[in-house]
């Protein structure tokens, strides 16, 4: 099953790649010289950074660490259906407990769980809450 994700396109690649990507049906995503996923049916949008940070944080102060990261990211967004070919191994001692949604569902069925409480840690700032 595909999931929809949105990525920023970094400035470095805009002049080289962006024009080639418009009209593509699929984009291969690479990590360490290996294809790890395919982004299908990509759509491109201007990255309205100020609107994004104001809606998310209620302010646009560039000294806020996450706001700064957003302002420094690319000027375009690409989204589409993501099919993962190979998961990235981070070798941080946690690789064996990172599961896909389908793997989690299988574990819950195996456990005969009748109730599940879970939350997702998406970035290092929030990982401190775990």
From TrEMBL:
Pathway: Sulfur metabolism. This is Bifunctional 3'-phosphoadenosine 5'-phosphosulfate synthase isoform X2. Residues 19-86 form the ATP-sulfurylase PUA-like domain. InterPro entries: ATP-Sase_PUA-like_dom, PUA-like_sf, Rossmann-like_a/b/a_fold, Sulfurylase_cat_dom. Coiled coil: none annotated. The keyword DNA-binding does not apply. Keywords: ATP-binding, Nucleotide-binding, Signal, Transferase. Residues 96-130 form the Sulphate adenylyltransferase catalytic domain. One of its GO terms (biological process) is sulfate assimilation. One of its GO terms (molecular function) is ATP binding. It comes from Aphis craccivora (Cowpea aphid). The keyword Ubl conjugation does not apply. Residues 1-19 form the signal peptide. It comes from the Eukaryota.
């Amino acid at each position: 099953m595909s999931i929809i994700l949105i990525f920023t396109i970094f400035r470095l690649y805009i002049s080289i790649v962006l024009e080639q990507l418009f009209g593509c049906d699929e984009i291969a995503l690479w990590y360490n010289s290996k294809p790890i996923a395919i982004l299908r049916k990509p759509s491109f949008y201007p990255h309205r950074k100020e609107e994004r940070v104001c809606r998310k944080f209620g302010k646009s102060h560039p000294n806020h660490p996450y706001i700064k990261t957003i302002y420094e990211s690319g000027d375009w967004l690409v989204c589409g259906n993501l099919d993962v070919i190979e998961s990235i191994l981070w070798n941080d001692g946690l690789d064996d407990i990172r599961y896909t949604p389908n793997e989690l569902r299988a574990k819950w069925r195996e456990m005969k769980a009748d109730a599940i409480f879970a939350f997702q840690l998406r970035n290092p700032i929030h990982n401190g809450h775990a």
